[in-house]
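Wed. Picked up where I left off yesterday with SRPBCC family protein. The coffee machine is broken again, so keeping this brief.
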Amino acid sequence: MNTSTDRIERQILLRATRDKVWHALVDAESFGDWFGMKLQGQRFVAGETTSGHLTYPGYEHLLCELQIERVEPKHLFSYRWHPYAIDPDGDYAHEPTTLVEFLLEDHADGILLRLVESGFDHIPLARRAEAWRMNSSGWDQQMQNIQRYLAGR
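Structure written out below (tokens, as returned):
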């Protein structure tokens, strides 16, 4: 496994309380608001799958499924999904998933949010590089999205 191609890591310092950051991550509707998914009326429960359509223009037809792995209150939230699964005719059900982990750490100026998405080396070779590239740039945007979301609260 090559860690430089197997995982994406990002972090951002959020000037918000741990409670507010945690709520933005694990309240499904709040998560959907900043992440870009319709998750009204849903909950994130370890061991269950949650799904919603993306809300980004041009991608509204895509249904995204999150298999919730762990919810460790105010510390760790993780789920599995099929990275960059955007072909509406593609069957991703038999592909391995990647693991997305959000970790919260106290910092003098707020909460340091660490994001790790791992498992790209198991994605089929034909999709692997593009999935890594697109998710890498996508996480850059998502870190800014959660920061803006929290600043507006």
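Quick read: The first helix runs from residue 3 to 6.
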